[in-house]
TrEMBL record:
Its cofactor is Fe cation. Keywords: Iron, Metal-binding. Belongs to the pirin family. It comes from Polaribacter filamentus. It holds the Pfam family Pirin. This is Pirin family protein.
Length: 235
């Protein structure tokens, strides 16, 4: 087993006033040659958007983009005539493919929005752009791996497709609950909240660990926890 531990304090950080953004991997003005990616996972940003603020219209191309709200609601608008808000419990997937433009905005006058945005490098480039979002029932991830995203050619029922042999899963763990995760590729474990033990390492809120060259790993919750798993090819 190989492992790489990323404590939350080692992330890049940018404060733009309207946006506070924590970067797990090199992004924008945060450049770290030792933190470029984990396999096909290129970006994992932990963004906080202030009330009545947002990202203006901007382009993407040949990237699988997944957004997961942690608190609040974020409005989305794109050039494919999608205009919807994503809320806590929902997951949004965009396959940028040949190119798309979109904007994101927090319409609340009082509450900030916190969401995770992941970029995964696609297996196939220049696909027709795709957009979807889905609400996932909380009961489906209680002490159980809930598959949020899976490959378009091996789609797990109920999940959203991406053009890569990658899987994104979430699990809500009760205190002292223990479970084995069987890796498909390499797996990057990002702790949204709580405290867990993975591969003899203790993860606290927003800590992460990447595991490779292992068939399985034991996860134990030291307290009530929410864990995100990004299982992606390494090359």
């Amino acid at each position: 087993m190989n492992k790489i531990l990323h404590k939350w304090t080692t992330r890049g950080f940018a404060d733009h006033g309207w946006l506070k953004s924590y970067h797990t991997f090199s992004f924008a003005n945060y450049q770290n040659l030792e933190r470029m990616n984990f396999g096909m996972l290129r970006v994992l940003n932990d963004d906080i958007v202030q009330p009545n603020m947002g990202f203006g219209t901007h382009p993407h191309r040949n990237m699988e983009i997944i957004s997961i709200p942690i608190s609040g609601a974020l409005s989305h608008k794109d050039n494919m005539n999608n205009q919807r808000a994503i809320e806590v419990g929902e997951v949004q997937v965009m396959s940028a493919g040949t190119g798309l433009t979109h904007s994101e905005f927090n319409h609340s006058k009082t509450d900030a929005v916190n969401f995770l945005q992941l970029w995964i490098l696609p297996e196939t480039e220049n696909v027709t752009p795709y957009y979807n979002q889905k609400m996932f029932e909380e009961s489906g991830r209680k002490n159980n791996f809930q598959v949020l995203v899976s490959p378009v050619d091996k789609l797990v029922e109920g999940s959203l497709p991406i053009h890569q042999q990658g899987y994104i899963l979430m699990i809500d763990l009760d205190p002292e609950f223990e479970i084995e995760y069987h890796l498909k590729n390499g797996a990057y474990f990002f702790l949204i909240d709580g405290e867990v033990s993975i591969a003899d390492e203790t993860l606290k809120e927003r800590d992460a660990i990447g595991i490779t060259e292992s068939e399985k790993v034991v996860i134990k919750a030291n307290k009530k926890s929410k864990l995100l798993i990004i299982d992606v090819p390494l090359n």
